[in-house]
């Protein structure tokens, strides 16, 4: 009898070892702490900018990191090297008297084409004052030995000898993001040229990406470098706007990309309206 | 619509189409109701895709999700259990007019809002549906210029598409465990609230479950997703569907911002659709499993334990 009792007790104890799970009652009432009619604190959208140590996942560090990406692409990008921010590890921001704000970031950046990563330390300065002043960026990128140099010079060679290939090309070529492999270097060039503009236009309240290269055409030139005419659509995330820019730029393996002329195209609201039906 | 009808045809005992509203251009807004008929009162999970027209990967994900749960519930005991306790309400394309507009030609591909006509004093079409819900409407993260991408409408709930959602959900709000809204791009999981001065009462839980979901996502293809409130990780938002749902008392509400993180933006290439859907599915599954288990499994396990304990005592005392 006792044995049986012991067994029963043992079994019961083993069985009741399963943790007690409390079931919370279904939430019936609406959340009153954010009632639609309550008055929010007034304040400009920009508010107090984050200062001191930054949370690497929050937008101030993420936006600053994007600016570093644009800077690195203007400096080190090529038709065969496109740089992207992979992770922000840490960041710091501070006011510099009345002249602007300074950021320090530790990030990992990634060569999108070869998928190689490296760490990067960057310093940025966003000047204050009237009108758009471009940020100043300091960051280094290690150009590891890749096929990139050879492919760039082969590509340049090919373009110098065969100018008729590229005219009025749209990239991606359709609404589904399709890009032919031999068109990718042109797409990268469009992104690099746009990076100059994105860098110039960046502030602490913007996050730029290239949405589309609407049109890229190679132009004839007597010079050593290659010349292109390009129309790109930039996506500015914070306003969700699509902004059109036209550019004239040059490229050579030695000199990289240089934007000669750039013009922002006006927002054409008419394009967003349906045509009047007859 | 024909795909939705096909789903019903293929799984007639589990899937029904429900028309719950009309768009400005008079198209039907429909959802798929998916679940096993048990005759008992069931809980619910909401998923909407394509509130923003240009985010094409989102409707693709809704289709993937539907197909996946319909394929797995017959062989996966957990999914079968969830289908018995919960009904899934999935709207593959909420902003139908906007979505169709983005297919029209190259210049319309990047349209975001719905296609409601221009207001009297302004000359652009469309309202940002994800700013139109009655959740701190029109305060921050919006612009009253009707040409803006963030135009929240002439007033809260001014849009037909918004009211279709709120009418449907409100009539059953106590049954909803989860409200998920699928978007792109950015690789983020956004939790309420979009207004910087308000914190959800279950913020910690939302973050914890969100972290679990991003870990589940990462395990599939090593894609990094970030969790946080919009004011923290992106920008302030008011009038969003998920904020409205959270205010109705639905405990777990998330905005999924799918791939990518900047290379292709809205025009995600074909070869990325499958992996994006695979990883997002794991993230969604994590959240809905948590929501389901919190409501169902605990009670069942407890009761089973107590009952078996009592039974054993009886058995032994009679021998």
TrEMBL record, chain A:
Residues 1-17 form the signal peptide. Residues 50-149, 168-273 form the Cystatin LXN-type domain. Pfam families: LXN. It comes from the Eukaryota. Transmembrane segments: none annotated. One of its GO terms (molecular function) is metalloendopeptidase inhibitor activity. One of its GO terms (cellular component) is extracellular space. Keywords: Protease inhibitor, Repeat, Signal. PROSITE patterns: CYSTATIN_LXN (PS52033). Belongs to the protease inhibitor I47 (latexin) family. PANTHER family: LATEXIN. This is Latexin. It comes from Maylandia zebra (zebra mbuna). The lineage of its organism: Eukaryota, Metazoa, Chordata, Craniata, Vertebrata.
From TrEMBL, chain B:
The active site is at 257 (proton donor/acceptor). InterPro entries: CARBOXYPEPT_ZN_1 (IPR057246), Peptidase_M14 (IPR000834). The keyword Transmembrane applies. GO terms for molecular function: metallocarboxypeptidase activity; zinc ion binding. Residues 1-291 form the Peptidase M14 domain. Pfam families: Peptidase_M14. Its cofactor is Zn(2+). GO terms for cellular component: extracellular space. It comes from the Eukaryota. SUPFAM superfamilies: Zn-dependent exopeptidases. PROSITE patterns: CARBOXYPEPT_ZN_1 (PS00132), PEPTIDASE_M14 (PS52035). Keywords: Carboxypeptidase, Hydrolase, Membrane, Metal-binding, Metalloprotease, Protease, Transmembrane, Transmembrane helix, Zinc. GO terms for biological process: proteolysis. Belongs to the peptidase M14 family. This is Carboxypeptidase O. The lineage of its organism: Eukaryota, Metazoa, Chordata, Craniata, Vertebrata.
């Amino acid at each position: 009898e006792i044995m049986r009792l012991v067994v029963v007790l043992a079994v019961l104890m083993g069985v009741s070892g399963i943790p007690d799970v409390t079931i919370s009652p279904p939430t019936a009432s609406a959340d009153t702490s954010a009632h639609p009619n309550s008055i929010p604190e007034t304040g400009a959208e920009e508010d107090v900018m984050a200062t001191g140590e930054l949370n690497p996942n929050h937008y101030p560090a993420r936006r600053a990191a994007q600016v570093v990406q644009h800077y690195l692409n203007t400096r080190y990008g090529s038709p065969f090297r496109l740089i992207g921010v992979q992770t922000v590890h840490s960041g710091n921001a501070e006011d510099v008297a009345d002249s602007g704000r300074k950021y320090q970031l530790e990030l990992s950046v990634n060569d999108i084409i070869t998928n190689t990563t490296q760490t990067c330390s960057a310093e940025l300065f966003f000047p204050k004052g009237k009108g758009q002043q471009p940020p100043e960026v300091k960051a280094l990128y290690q150009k590891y030995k890749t096929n990139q140099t050879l492919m760039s010079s082969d590509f340049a060679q090919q373009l110098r000898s065969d100018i008729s290939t590229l005219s009025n090309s749209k990239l991606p070529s359709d609404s589904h993001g399709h890009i032919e492999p031999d068109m990718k270097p042109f797409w990268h060039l469009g992104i690099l040229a746009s990076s100059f503009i994105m860098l110039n236009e960046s502030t602490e309240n913007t996050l730029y990406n290239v949405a589309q290269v609407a049109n890229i055409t190679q132009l004839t030139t007597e010079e050593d470098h290659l010349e292109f005419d390009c129309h790109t659509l930039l996506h500015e995330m914070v306003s969700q706007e699509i902004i059109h820019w036209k550019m004239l730029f040059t490229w050579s393996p030695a000199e990289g990309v240089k934007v000669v002329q750039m013009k922002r195209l006006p927002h054409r609201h008419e394009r967003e309206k349906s045509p009047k039906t007859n | 619509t024909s795909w939705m009808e096909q789903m019903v045809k293929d799984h007639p005992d589990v899937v029904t189409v429900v028309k719950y509203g009309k768009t400005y251009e008079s198209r039907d807004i429909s959802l798929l109701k998916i679940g096993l008929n048990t005759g008992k009162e069931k809980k619910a999970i909401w998923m909407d895709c394509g509130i923003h027209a240009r985010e094409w990967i989102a409707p693709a994900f809704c289709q993937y999700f539907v197909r996946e749960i319909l394929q797995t519930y017959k062989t996966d005991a957990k999914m079968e259990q969830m289908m018995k306790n919960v009904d899934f309400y999935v709207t593959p394309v909420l902003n139908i007019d906007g979505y169709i507009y983005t297919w029209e030609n190259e210049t319309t591909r990047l349209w975001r809002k719905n296609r409601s006509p221009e207001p009297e004093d302004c000359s652009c079409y469309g309202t940002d549906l994800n700013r139109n819900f009655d959740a701190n409407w029109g305060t921050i993260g919006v612009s009253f210029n009707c040409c803006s991408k963030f135009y929240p409408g002439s007033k809260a709930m001014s849009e037909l598409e918004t009211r279709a959602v709120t009418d449907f959900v409100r009539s059953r709000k106590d049954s909803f465990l989860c409200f998920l809204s699928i978007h792109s791009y950015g690789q983020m999981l956004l939790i309420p609230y979009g207004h910087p001065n308000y914190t959800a009462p279950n913020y910690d839980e939302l973050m914890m479950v969100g972290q679990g979901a991003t870990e589940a996502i990462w395990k599939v293809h090593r894609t990094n997703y970030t969790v946080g409130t919009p004011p923290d990780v992106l920008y302030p938002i008011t009038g969003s569907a998920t904020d409205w749902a959270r205010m109705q008392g639905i405990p777990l509400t998330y905005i999924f911002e799918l791939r990518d993180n900047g290379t292709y933006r809205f025009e995600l290439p074909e070869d990325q659709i499958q992996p994006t859907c695979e990883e997002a599915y794991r993230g969604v599954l994590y959240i809905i499993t948590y929501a389901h288990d919190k409501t169902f499994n605990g009670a069942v396990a407890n009761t089973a334990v107590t009952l078996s304990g009592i039974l054993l005592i009886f058995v032994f005392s009679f021998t």
